[in-house]
Request: fold
Amino acid sequence: MDLLSLDPTQFITLTPVSVAFLLAVGFVGGLVSGFIGSGGAFILTPGMMGLGVPGAVAVASNMCHKFPKAMVGAIKRYRFGQVDIKLGMVIAATAGIGVQIGIRIQRFILENWGQAGSDLYVSVSFVVVLVVVGSYILKDALRSSHCGKDDDESTPPLARKLQAINLPPMISFPKSGLRISLWFTLPVGIATGMLAATIAVGGFVGVPGLIYVIGVPGLIASGTELVTAFVMGLCGSVNWAMHGMIDIRLVFIILAGSLFGVQLGAIGTTYVKPIMIKYVMAAIMLIVAASRIVALPGYLSALGLIQMGPGLLYVLKVVSFITMCAGLLVGAGMILGGMWRGQQRNRKEAALGDVA
Reply:
């Protein structure tokens, strides 16, 4: 299949129900993006695919909507003092290499195995990365909670070891309070860019990479990732647009919901403890991974690798969609609930201060 000759009729037909769902997905994706610094693609891309959008089109359209949303979120977080501009640009520069690698991988799969192969690749990639990263983050958050270190921002062991290695060129990041070799930032940037281009996901690798590999504090890591997401989204969108893979309708619908959500999510970071970001990331990742696992048999059947009846495939598709919706509700509920509790806590503290 020639990527340059993708038939525009493969773009889905929009209905009032699908538009409403995309607006909701955009809002929650934006909410998550502003809160944890990720572009929210681990919600948005599977959400579009759940409506029947081809994997490659979902990835390209998601990247296109990402950069204006990331810019809004980055500006909002910068005003809260939660963005390291220098670090964001360093990671973005190396992420550009990863973006080009990722696009070439996606094009190779499309040309050799068609749309079903691309959908399977995107879903399997989601499952592997979401389960591995989500499980690690959940384990780390639980460990911190059991140790009674809800607000612990100490440098993770791996990052502490890497910062102690004097391997020129060394770069200082005053905003993040660290100094590290440029060579240790390269893997984080390249991995972030490659995943962003292949499955429209970079943030949930970029943010943990900044925290656990480089040693950036959680809130600053999540805010700084938005700078990287803006640069990657802009460059990746230009590349995908040249191949006719962007459905501009999806871009504007999702953007309409996400621009509001990203600002609300950014505000939410001022009301919650840093460990809350880890819990939100882990919960959404693992639920979305379950949704993609349920969808895998459909893609395997389309490739002729397994045989399944249409009735069973339809049931699996519905279950996958419902699981995805559950992930949206859980993520939004955790963030909005955390914001509400934080506001109540601040009001009580202010009231006690006035009495004193």
About this structure: The beta strands are 170-173, 178-181. The first strand starts at residue 170 and ends at 173.
